[in-house]
Amino acid sequence: MIGVYEVLPAGLAAQVEALEAAAWPGAGAGHDPALSPRTVVLWDGAGQGAVAACLTLLRKEIRLGGGTYRAAGLSAVVTRPELRGRGLGGRLVTAAREVLAADPEVDVALFSCDRELTPFYEAAGFERLPGTVLLGGTPADPLPSDRPGFDKAVLAAFFTPDPASTRAVFTSTRIPLYPGLTDRLW
Questions:
Q1: In-domain check, residue 183
Q2: E strand spans, 65-105
Q3: 48, 145 in Cβ contact below 8 A?
Q4: Residue 87 maps to which CATH number?
Q5: Which Pfam families is this protein grouped with (predicted)?
Q6: For residue range 90-127, what is the model confidence (pLDDT) as tens digits?
């Protein structure tokens, strides 16, 4: 069972926080409220007991190529270690893409991932954007996805009336994402 939450109930929030802390020790808890975070949760089994996997959807407007796009990104995608390899992460990411595709307030889903995870996200319906770099952080303290030693790929899904034209704007370019210092590179 999958649920989408703007505000997590306390017990669920504690489980999500524990999963994120185990995956990224010292990364800090939570997401920047300015990015309108929504958490997507997949439960272990049919009930709403233990969280099997979760991720957070973040949003902001991006100005690029003379246009303004309502972007959403995947952040903090994690599956409980003992449940990995069962397809749960793929189900979660596919469901998140469907949530974004159905949202009339989202033009593009856009995020970076470790390059070796590209096939995982492509199987969930995202496409790699060759030559594209996300500029995270802030303009004063940028975090580019092509920073030396930072082997990232940029993936996207386009939900505009003319996805091919939008894809062309986002391909082989440096995108000023600048989500801030909390979610430096979603």
A1: no
A2: 67-79
A3: no
A4: 3.40.630.30
A5: Acetyltransf_9
A6: 999 999 999 999 999 999 999 999 999 999 999 999 99
